[in-house]
Specification:
Elements (H helix, E strand, L loop, with lengths): L2 E12 L2 E12 L3 E5 L6 H8 L7 E6 L2 E2 L5 H6 L2 E3 L12 H12 L10 H4 L3 H10 L15 H13 L5 E5 L10 H11 L4 E5 L3 H7 L2 E6 L2 E6 L1 H5 L2 H9 L5
Parallel strand pairs: 3-8, 3-9, 6-7, 7-8
Antiparallel strand pairs: 1-2, 1-4, 4-5, 9-10
Helix pairs in contact: 3-5, 3-6
Bound molecules: adenosine-5'-triphosphate.
Length: about 250
């Protein structure tokens, strides 16, 4: 299996504090790869480095073999590496369809053209409906985003990210804060969108990681502690100790 995304010895320092230290990461094409670790381990920072929202202090990032270390987030998104935009970038006063339409306009470089006649904007509606269908939200297309459940907002967030046509999709804690009843819906959605792309996810819920992920990378205090299948990771004494030491049940 080929490597689609790779970090080589990446580090990130915030004002002298090393949040990520010399981390190596290889993500196989077509896999679902989890980044796990106790709070403050550097998972979100590593995500920011991979997607170029953070500059690296040292080390290199490669996407499909191309060095993207000096590229910006918009550039790598156009190359197919996209992170979910989080609910904060969803517009509560717009309908679900309009939210996806804005994301499609962003993809096509016309999101700032608010002055366009609505009939021109509507050309995106068919694509928006297809994406809503993909995440099970098509029946709610005309509902205001503010009116739907948190779980559905997270599904919408995935739809708006799919609008960027990612080949590698990075999801930051996709089930965080979600009601238990909504979790199976998002788990199935991630499994489904991963059929034709690579997914990298930061996730605290280890049973979700176990059921979804082919590979797991464990970060502890900014450093790579272990990498392997979920069962290899689960049985690794150093990983268990790091989690127990941080107050987790394993
Ligand atoms: N912009 C920043 N400025 C200063 N320190 C930061 C910044 N971002 C993160 N850190 C620090 O870097 C360390 C790693 O943070 P990060 O958010 O990457 O961890 P995490 O593994 O994602 O944690 P969590 O699971 O709690 O979200 C933490 O000690 C955090 O306080």
């Amino acid at each position: 299996m080929s490597i689609v995304l790779e970090a080589r010895q990446v580090s990130k320092s915030f004002g002298g504090f090393l949040a990520v230290k010399n981390v190596d990461l290889k993500v196989h094409e077509g896999s679902i790869h989890a980044l796990i670790g106790p709070n403050g381990a550097g998972k979100t920072t590593l995500f920011g480095l991979l997607t170029r929202f953070h500059s690296t202090t040292s080390g290199s990032i490669f996407l499909k073999g191309e060095d993207i270390t000096s590229k910006g987030p918009a550039d790598v998104a156009l190359r197919g590496l996209c992170r979910s935009f989080q609910i904060s970038s969803i517009f509560p006063g717009l309908t679900l369809r309009e939210n996806v339409r804005v994301a499609l306009q962003r993809r096509h470089g016309s999101s700032h053209q608010f002055w366009q006649p609505s009939r021109v904007l509507r050309r995106f509606d068919d694509d928006a409906d297809r994406l809503l269908d993909r995440v099970g939200l098509r029946p709610l297309a005309d509902r205001l985003c503010s009116e739907v459940s948190y779980g559905r907002k997270r599904a919408l967030e995935i739809a708006t990210t799919l609008a960027m046509e990612p080949k590698v999709l990075l999801l930051d804690e996709p089930i965080a804060g979600m009601a238990a009843g909504d979790i199976p819906m998002i788990v199935e959605l991630i499994r489904s969108v991963a059929k034709d792309r690579t997914v990298v996810m930061v996730e605290h819920n280890l049973s979700v990681v176990e059921s979804l992920c082919d590979r797991v990378t464990v970060l502890v205090r900014g450093e790579l502690m272990a990498e392997g299948t979920y069962s290899e990771i689960r049985d690794n004494p150093a990983v268990r100790q790091a989690y127990i030491g941080a107050g987790y049940e394993v």
